[in-house]
Amino acid sequence: MNNTIPLISSGLKGPLGVLHLPRLWQKVSLENVGKLNSDYPGIGAGYDSMVIDGLGLDKDAFVSFMQTKPTYTQLEAWILETSGGALDTEKVNTLNEAITGYNHTDETRKEILSASGIEDNGTILDAINLNNIDDWQCFHAQEIV
Question: What sign does the CA torsion over 140, 142, 144, 145 have?
């Protein structure tokens, strides 16, 4: 069944301190076993690519490693190994700031909030929270209703 909506937030970090990495791991893991909801890409052009590029990972090598079905901590160990044993703190901070500072377009924000019955009063602007709201709404519509 190809229907799981990922509910790990992009605002979550694992032990390495990289935002969105746990969500990326979950999405690619689900995709690799044919269980990711078709509305979600395993590796999309947004935060997914930002993380891969921001950590200096080779996308093909990442995809290949993820096909081994690693646990989350095994993925982090692989990233450390690939990065020479340590991550550049400045790169991680820059990446995390880019993730937390990203806002959707006004149109996307309005669509997400409207679909969830939330008034667009300018208080929810960041993509992390908007994506969470969208995921929760999609989950509810698919799994509960």
Answer: positive
Q: Are residues 41 and 51 in the same domain?
A: yes
Report the C-alpha gap between 91 and 18 in whole angstroms.
Answer: 10
Contact 47, 10 (CB under 8 A): yes
DSSP 8-state assignment for residue 104: -
Question: Is 112 found in the same domain as 95?
Answer: no
Provide the CB-side half-sphere exposure for 67 (13 A, CA).
6
Query: 120: domain range?
Result: 103-145
Token readout for 60 is 């093909």
This prediction's pTM: 0.95
pLDDT at 142: 87
Same structural domain, 67 and 84:
yes
